[in-house]
Amino acid sequence: MISSNIREGNIRKLLSDDSKKNIRPISLTVELTYRCNFRCIHCYIPDKDRQEDGEITFDEIKDILDQAENLGVIYVCFTGGEIFLRKDIFDIIRYARNKGFYIRLKTNGSLITKKIAAKIAKSMVNAIDISLYAFDEKGYKKITGKKGVLNNVLGAVLNLKKQKIPVRIAYIFLKENMGYSKKIVDFAKRNKIEFSYNFQISNKNDGCSDTLDHACTDSENVLNTLDYFNKKRKDSETSKKKGNKTNKEYGGRCDVGYSGIRVSPYGLVYPCVILQTPAGNIRHDRLSNIYKNSHTFNLVRSIKTFKDLENCKKCDFEEYCRPCLGERLNCNPTIKEYAEINKKIMLR
Ligand code: SF4
Ligand code: SF4
Q: By CB count within 10 A, which of 55, 137, 205, 299 is most buried?
């Protein structure tokens, strides 16, 4: 029996260990659409992929959720693109809710009016992440290509908070938004809203690396901002504990191939959000067969340690590079720069 004072992090660790031992997924990410009302400079979705045609239908999503339930999945994340562009979004949430999944939504927040916030509250999602890219209209336009949306996004965050929905601000470090980071932290603190950050961005889904031009790899700037973040934040979601451990201390690789499954808006199935090699398609195969028997999942599971990867074996930054197999398999110069920043963070 699990003691009641075990924290969520510990439970996740127990579940993750169990998923490795019994080859059983615990989380499902469904990308409901690649359409979006923004065109962010760092977005991993190529423009040609933002098609409504061919998107998974409500019936297909219901079937995916039924299959996930049978596989033992507990956590479901709905992400995009922008999920509130789907007209059936509340039907989808309601269906997942009735199955008893823990539900997290990821959104850019710009379409969440007061009325939508009330509807979200009624649908009883467990958590919602809203990306906040800048703190003035000029900055927002530069990053998202969209004018006049900042007030909508801030309004969404505050309306959700008012509705008592666990809302979290997600901030991504970019060259173009470093100047806003402290203001965003101050906004979160002032309104008692959780926030998280990420300073690693990746190639587009089609391999194009233009996104990396926007990566913030100025370590001094990142370190200063992180200091400000950590001073201001009581509980660190991006995990000071884990982030400050070297890979040796952390003890291994991420649990890709075991704990998670991602389904794209066109039914393609992947082991995680970073790896771009499809393992199958829910339109032609059962989720359980793809998860248990596909070449992609089995190949990923066969890599037991980063010592199995030739490039990492010889790399000076191995100990400090993120324990993310998807990134390790597709190393690029920016990942090396990120590893250097990680090293500085860990050795401070
Ligand atoms: S809001 Fe998200 S999905 Fe939309 S363009 Fe920006 S990064 Fe991409
Ligand atoms: S920087 Fe690249 S080669 Fe070095 S450990 Fe990280 S992924 Fe491997």
A: 55
